Amino acid sequence: MKRDRLKKNSRMKISLAWALLTTVSLWQSIGVAQEQPYTILISFDGFRWDYIDRGYSPNLQHLAEDGARTLSLKPVFPSKTFPNHYTIVTGQYSEGHGLIANNYNDPFSGERYSLRDQQAVREAKWYLGEAFWETAERQGVRSASYFWPGSEMNLSYRRASYFHHYEHERPYEARVQGVLDWLQLPDAQRPRFITLYFDAVDGAGHWFGPDAPETNSAIARVDSMLGMLVDGLQRLGLREQTNVIVVSDHGMTDIDSTRTIWVDDLLGDLECDIEDRGPLMLLTPQNASVDEVYQVLKKSENRFRVYTRETMPENFHFARHPFIPPVVLLADIGWSLATHDRPVGGKGHHGFDPNHLDMHGIFYANGPSFKKGYRSGTIHNIDIYPLLCAIYGIEPRLNIDGRLERVEFLLAK
Ligand code: AMP
Ligand code: ZN
Ligand code: ZN
Question: Which pLDDT belongs to residue 1?
Fold first, then answer.
């Protein structure tokens, strides 16, 4: 009897100790969760590195001056929207993460990826990278996305906890309010990492040119959204705990129709499947070999460059992915590659060599994880993913192209 009671007593002691231990660790884990900063990653599509100095973006200026301001953000090749947004959240070159252009074909299945095709952008097969929200969610950092290329995948385990299907016309105020609403969820459901996207500066740059008054108005418009967001954070009492990072995917440069290279004239009888027009053209020969097409275009190389997989400059990191078409044309800055059935319109474009400063975007970060009043030179957008991982102390995916050591100096001690 006595022995039984003793046994019972010690069992009770053990379970009490266990309960105490789990309570403590539960509190500790809640404590850790509470210590996680908030980070809002905002993209102003097509915001060139030097637009900030025009005087139309006081909120951005204040954020940049007060936080960590880089001279420019170098995009990856091709300097287009989808490849670069996905690079920013995966830390990989486009040949690695799979989004090699805004529109392209899988030559093996005949399936097509296009930023305008709602089904295709949700199809997980195109996305070979691991977006930061996937890495974060897996390691206990709840995430949300108010638009970002790659955020709508049809596999729930590859998405953020909260997301929206892209809607071009969704009012900007509704996007900001949506982010502020997420930040008012009960603590356990509240996202710590959030993306937000605005297209206006890119659109105006294309139609009216980078120096047009309409582009300056677009700069002012997205800047006022940043103001609305920061005011909202202040009202919620979250500003001090929140990193606001403003980036862009690429810049913009002047084009005009007098600087056009008519590729169909150069090709003559050689037939090619042609993807894209403008700074970049992707060709798949139909009635001739790759070498024939290459040689013909190589001879007439003037105001543009022609590359095959073998001759692609190494620093473009654009050869490894099997969907990259066999011939790639790249116009000199300001020139457009076109065919007579599809001339290039507008007054501004991007997609040119990422080494050209006009193609560079922005990176400004302000919040508890970043240095204050700090200015640095150009950084590379492949390095943002490991930087985000460092903010949360989580493990980045293996085999990425980005390196924390190239951007670590932006972080506060
Ligand atoms: P680009 O042709 O490279 O200038 O692409 C810019 C366009 O991409 C914008 O005008 C948007 O309409 C579009 N876009 C940006 N994000 C998304 C998204 N998540 N889903 C679909 N389209 C998008
Ligand atoms: Zn863009
Ligand atoms: Zn654009």
Answer: 43
Supply 21's token pair.
């231990």
pTM above 0.90, yes or no: yes
Q: Identify the CA nearest to 90 among candidates 62, 48, 132.
A: 132
Of all protein residues, whose CA lies closest to atom 18 belonging to ligand 1? 149
Domains and CATH numbers, the chain: 37-253+354-410 (3.40.720.10), 260-345 (3.30.1360.180)
| Chunked mean pLDDT (size 10), the chain, 413 residues | 50 47 42 74 99 98 98 98 98 98 97 98 98 98 98 97 98 99 98 98 98 98 99 98 99 98 98 97 98 97 96 97 98 98 97 98 99 98 98 97 98 93
378 catalytically annotated: no
Ligand 1 center to residue 157 CA distance, Å?
24
Distance (angstroms) between ligand 1 centre and the Cα of 115 equals: 6
Residue with the nearest Cα to atom 20 of ligand 1?
166
Q: What is the pLDDT of residue 368?
A: 98
Q: Which protein residues are within 6 Å of ligand 1, measured from CB?
A: 45, 80-81, 102, 115, 121, 147-149, 166, 168, 197, 199, 202-203
